[in-house]
Amino acid sequence: MLVFGVITLGVGVFLVADPEETLKVFTVIFGIFLLIDGILAIVAAVLGRVESRALLAVVGVISAIAGLILIKKPFQSLTVLIVILGVWLVVAGVARFVYAFTTREGRGAYLLIAAIDTIAGIVILSWPHPSLKTLAVIAGIVFIVRGLIYIWAGWSLRRIIKSDASGAALAR
């Protein structure tokens, strides 16, 4: 959790510091991921022994084409990526909100993250006309806050684990 928090915080800082370039880099990285995933799916469809080879081949071709588009035209793809981010934040926020009521441990943190994600997603989806930089800065701020929350949770878990380990050692 601590490592995830540091990575999330870092992504947020990069998004706030240089939103346009960071989004371009992430779009190209995501495009490379989709291209490789598509190629592997096509190879698996041709060489593998799975029942749904045709479906796997179609998914592979779609992934490869989407990857190439993201690599070749990252700026044009950014708008789609930002809308996807907005939808993801709303869905993740609602899911975390629902999950928060299924557990007692960490409920406050889940509710806080759910609120931040949902509000940020709604803002992104409500105003699609502002520049991508503005949306990237909003996403960056969300990632910074989430990263700090995950870092705090990771340190808290680390302290709990250490105190449990030292208590168990004393009990022996």
Describe this structure in words.
This protein has 172 residues and is mainly α. It has one domain (2-171). Helix content is 88%, strand content 0%. The protein has six helices and no strands. The chain has helices spanning 2-17, 19-47, 53-72, 74-100, 107-126, 132-171. Helix 1 crosses helix 2. It is globular. The two termini are 30 Å apart. The model has no long low-confidence stretch (mean pLDDT 85).
Strand and helix map with partners:
Elements: H1 2-17, H2 19-47, H3 53-72, H4 74-100, H5 107-126, H6 132-171
Brief digest:
With 172 residues, this protein is mostly helical.
Supply the helix-strand structural class: mainly alpha
- Between the first and last Cα atoms, what is the distance in angstroms? 30 Å
Based on CA atoms alone, the radius of gyration comes out at 20 Å
Count of spatially separate domains: 1
Number of H- or I-type helical stretches? 6
SSE string, helices as H and strands as E? HHHHHH
Q: What is the average per-residue confidence, as pLDDT, rounded to a whole number?
A: 85
Shape: globular
Strand content: under 5%
Number of strands: 0
Biggest beta sheet summary: none
Low-pLDDT sequence parts: none
Task: Please estimate the helix content.
Answer: over 70%
